[in-house]
Amino acid sequence: EKSRIGVTGLAVMGANLARNIASRGVPVAVHNRTYAKTEQFMADYGAEGDFTASESVKDFVDSLETPRKIIVMVKAGKPVDGVIEELTPLLDEGDIIIDAGNSHFPDTVRRTAECEANGLRFMGVGVSGGEEGALLGPSIMPGGDPAAYEEVREIFESIAAVVDGTPCVTHVGPGGAGHYVKMVHNGIEYADIQLIAEAYDLLTNVVGLDAPAVGKIFEEWNTGDLDSFLIEITGKVLAKTDARTGRPLVDVIVDQAGQKGTGTWTAIDALQLGIPLTGITEAVFARGLSALRSERKAAAGVLAGPTPSKEVDESLVEDIRLALYASKVVAYAQGFAQMRAASVENGWDLKLGEMATIWRGGCIIRARFLNRIREAYDEHPDLDNLLMVPYFTEAVANAQDAWRRVIVKATEQGVPIPAFSSSLSYYDGYRRERGPANLIQGLRDFFGAHTYKRIDAEGSFHTRWAQDGTEVEA
Ligand code: NDP
Known about the structure:
Residues 178-466 form the 6-phosphogluconate dehydrogenase C-terminal domain. This protein is an alpha/beta fold. It is 54% helix and 11% strand. It has helices spanning 12-22, 35-45, 57-62, 78-87, 105-117, 130-136, 146-159, 177-205, 211-221, 229-239, 262-273, 278-291, 293-300, 315-346, 352-358, 370-379, 390-413, 418-430, 437-448; strands spanning 5-8, 28-31, 51-53, 69-72, 96-99, 121-128, 139-144, 162-163, 166-167, 452-454, 457-463, 471-473. Strand 11 (457-463) and strand 12 form a beta hairpin. Helix 9 runs antiparallel to helix 10 (229-239), helix 11 crosses helix 12 (278-291) and helix 15 (352-358) runs antiparallel to helix 16 (370-379). The radius of gyration is 25 Å and the shape is globular. The site of NADPH dihydro-nicotinamide-adenine-dinucleotide phosphate (NDP) has 23 residues, from helix 1, helix 4, strand 6 and helix 6.
């Protein structure tokens, strides 16, 4: 009997996806470049389901029913191309290659075209939820040919996380749309995490609480509007005591953040689209600054500035919660505006409400809050900005005094809050009917004759700055 679907790449993600699929009673073919890993997989989990293991790619391909459906779960980048190259001559017209790793969406666009040229169908599928999600129910963001998606829809729906009876998977759009949405998901994850880190910094260094006390506050926050996986695990991480020293574990962890690049991709894409994406981009920059540990150490004794008071002021705790919530609303508003712009640019027709729906469970940014976003797009599918729906307009209106107080306090005490403060600047900029870009245009016209528009006349104008100072129509 042939297997219904195959998985190649049996590191944590591939192994757990294969086990998840098999747990639904689906026969799964498994393969890994290094055969020892396949053998180990079979020894550990072979009895869990109907697995067929192969050593060679050819046997793996032959063990699949047609049209073949092959999930590629290998290291993102060149290895994906290598695997596609190996598979291509062994496959038949109409077979489906499903790249479920964290590929960069332009690569997915290219691979889709290459596979199509070879008579194959290609899907770029974002999978979020880490190891545990892959095994128990991830959020899945499939992109590519809709007909190809129909071939795997039932399996995907059966393995995805489920929230209120709805599986966290939907066909996102053609070509690179799935990996694009996964990229923005990861970018939003960066912003969420940065905002949490800033709140932790303030609660520690301004409010003067220790890690376990801050952990309790996050636990409490997780019962309200902020209810989410990341807030929940923040409470757990802060509560953890280090076995070696007896101190809170976070106090012995080096303050340098790593990154694999998806936040940077999101920020670069926003720059190219011309979409203001301050929350995610500041989060990437903050990780970059954290990495300059030895420079920071040298600067700490040289550069002047206030030292945080650590004066316990519990009244600030609620202000910080509100500042975190308002900044989070802005970060999501920006991320969704970016997806909307990309959808228009690429003709993807992304249903933004559905993106919020499939992020409610399984993925790292899962949160109660996403229900509100889904409702917003259900009511207004062509919404320009989430801040403009009453729920979010009011949420931020209610938070903004506290948000401003927190930013003033942090600034006075020298605590950096790039994501909190840039989110507020974005908000203040967005709600401003007339900003200072008139002067920018004046300057551009002065040094480069770039012209400007007038508020009282149609057309473009140039002032002859270096000549007689008169205005001419451009
Ligand atoms: P890794 O990214 O660590 O990749 C290891 C796997 O890739 C192994 O099976 C390895 O085979 C295979 N591989 C590497 N190079 C090649 C090659 N040239 N040809 C064939 N196979 C190769 O595994 P993960 O399970 O962590 O992640 C898989 C994908 O899922 C990645 O794209 C990752 O970004 C993404 N992802 C990971 C998440 C996570 O939490 N880890 C969450 C969501 C997505 P071998 O055993 O022979 O070395």
